[in-house]
Amino acid sequence: MSIQLALENRHLRNEINYLRREQDVVYEFDRIIARSPSMKQTIVTLKKFSGTDSTILVTGETGTGKSFFVRGYSF
After folding, report:
1. How many CB atoms lie within 10 A of CB 34?
2. d(CA 51, CA 3)
3. pLDDT, tens digit, for every residue of 49-67?
4. CA 32, CA 19: separation in Å to the nearest integer?
5. 15-40: per-residue pLDDT in tens?
6. How many other C-beta atoms are found inside a 10 Å radius of the C-beta of residue 26?
7. How far is 70 from 27, CA to CA, in rounded Å?
8. How far apart are the C-alpha atoms of 57 and 25, rounded to whole Å?
9. Share of the chain residues as helix, strand and coil, in percent rounded to the nearest 5
10. Cα torsion for 12, 13, 14, 16, to the nearest 10°?
């Protein structure tokens, strides 16, 4: 096994372990505290479509919490 393959293998194992830990975190919409009207509307919209099989595209600037909404939610 080459050094490159060993490094890739290690990276993939670390990523798998990270993703497994993240799956244990489940959030609920009712526990989110939002102040801005746009964030409140985003929560309402996501909650509305959460029970469907639809694909939802969440866009926004870096650091606005997109990944918070799409990772680990019990829609």
Report:
1. 13
2. 46
3. 877 887 778 888 888 877 7
4. 22
5. 888 877 765 555 677 777 888 898 88
6. 8
7. 10
8. 21
9. 55, 5, 40
10. 90
